[in-house]
Amino acid sequence: MGARKKISADRRKEALKSMYFARLQNVPTSPRKMRLVADMVRGMEVNRALGVLKFSSKEAAARVEKLLRSAIANWEQKNERKAESGELFVTKIFVDCGSTLKRMRPAPQGRGYRIRKRSNHVTLFVDSKSNNEDQN
Fold first, then answer.
1. Is 61 left (phi over 0), alpha (psi -120 to 50) or beta?
2. How far apart are CA 98 and CA 106, in angstroms?
3. HEC string of 8-25?
4. Confidence band for 9, pLDDT divided at 50, 70 and 90
5. Rounded to an integer, what distance in angstroms lies between the CA atom of residue 28 and that of residue 120?
6. Could you give the 3-state DSSP secondary structure of residue 85?
7. 58-101 confidence digits (pLDDT tens)
8. Bigger pLDDT: 8 or 130?
9. What Cα–Cα distance (Å) separates residue 50 from each residue in 33, 38, 58, 59, 133?
10. Highest mean pLDDT range out of 13-17, 46-50, 129-133?
């Protein structure tokens, strides 16, 4: 059983070497608010997505913009060249729930209201258009 897990972990590491992504963990905003921003840029060309995020009024947009720049840098590092305009696209972006801090707020007549301070994890994949067509 242990050898089987090791093989699957090795295979997963090899698969991740050919993917270009960036991950942002424990962002102190609710996943619902972050998903609104993630939906704005899903499937877009990266330069256009950077423009959309830069001029968005949402607070989460600044964090996703920084994450997208990191994913582009990761692509450039692995391919040992600069990305040309119109070459890279946001192939996948998803938001998962992180840990929730549970707090109590004093309420009238000795009660306490529960406050849930949510957090999330964002994962963003970028790739060139030719690689997307090969996979589909």
1. alpha
2. 25
3. HHHHHHHHHHCCEEEEEE
4. confident
5. 7
6. coil
7. 999 999 999 999 999 999 999 989 988 889 999 999 999 999 99
8. 8
9. 18, 12, 14, 14, 23
10. 46-50
